[in-house]
Amino acid sequence: MSKPQVLIAANPKTGIVWSKDEQASKLGAVAEVLELTSSSRSEFFDELAGSGKYANVVGIYRHNDSVSAVGLFDKELIDKLPKSVKYICHNGAGYDQIDVAAASARGIEVSHTPQAVDAATATVGAFLAISAVRQFYRAEVNVRNGKWKAGLKPARDPEEKVLGIIGMGGIGSALARRLIAFDMKVIYYNRKPISPEPDFPCTYVSSQDELLKQADVVSLNLPLNDKTKGSFGKKQFDLMKDGSVLVNTARGAVVDEEALIEALESGKLASAGIDVYPDEPNVNPKLIAMDNITLLPHMGTETRDTQKKMEILVLDNLVSAVSGKGLLNQVPEQKK
Ligand SMILES: NC(=O)c1ccc[n+]([C@@H]2O[C@H](COP(=O)([O-])OP(=O)(O)OC[C@H]3O[C@@H](n4cnc5c(N)ncnc54)[C@H](O)[C@@H]3O)[C@@H](O)[C@H]2O)c1
């Protein structure tokens, strides 16, 4: 009997990067592996249809790098997938580039890579929080320009300050553990308290507004979806303490960027640490011009160790699914 076909929709030039051996040994043992070669979305659509080379695939490995060739996995693309497709296994914890509702309507199950991303992304969040609180970016620019400490004002200490985490999931918890080591006091807001209780000291607050009033550093760690898009705007900044700090490693589009810029310009926020932007890779020039914020180019999982972990988790999901054992990390919307 022939093996089911799976498509690796990753970077068309490199495919899977760190786990080629596992791709061959684990996935190759249970499936015929096809690489994405389409150079445009319309070419991809042709290859999915009729007698096209992807017309019989059962599972798809998807990485955001495939966007440059075939675009988002939006409703239009998902509706063009052949009936044979049963699984989309996404490499990433955030899966806002996939229209999950459209996939569900077609009976396609979607998985992602929670946990594998937690440590690396939380390290970025902790770095941004410390850099923002201590104003290290401004200091680095000074030293690089031969100005030493000229114009630098003493910053704040993280110790004894309140860290407010909005979205205490995998990354939020790993961030809390890291910043507790800096003697920060952790509060968090989720739609309901975590159960069982976390194994580190933290306090649940029952409204986001209350968290914003209490926190010195607010960290966004919730997913981007229809409910959270643009949900952090002027009203939320106004509720924050004067001179507080915002850290965003979640998704840029959760925040109203003009309101963020206004809060930084007015001094409502002393500083910010930002890894994600609404229109990546474009960054608002007003943010670039500010010297009181630390900006990173979506570096959350940019380590070879974590990227390998993520790739292997996607392969494990695909192998399990095409072997009839189901997905290991199906997205929460579909698990409900
Ligand atoms: N910067 C990066 O490179 C990077 C890397 C990985 C993930 N991320 C982003 O981080 C997000 C969080 O990842 P995670 O793995 O921790 O996810 P997770 O699902 O483990 O945690 C998210 C938490 O947010 C909570 N939540 C959901 N909607 C909420 C709302 N409206 N208000 C309050 N809480 C809400 C959930 O209950 C959950 O506890 C991802 O969705 C992704 O967009 C960014």
Automatic annotation (TrEMBL):
The keyword Oxidoreductase applies. Signal peptide: none annotated. Residues 128-300 form the D-isomer specific 2-hydroxyacid dehydrogenase NAD-binding domain. This is 2-hydroxyacid dehydrogenase. Keywords: Oxidoreductase. Residues 73-331 form the D-isomer specific 2-hydroxyacid dehydrogenase catalytic domain. GO terms for molecular function: glyoxylate reductase (NADPH) activity; hydroxypyruvate reductase [NAD(P)H] activity; NAD binding. It comes from Kwoniella newhampshirensis. Belongs to the D-isomer specific 2-hydroxyacid dehydrogenase family. GO terms for cellular component: cytosol.
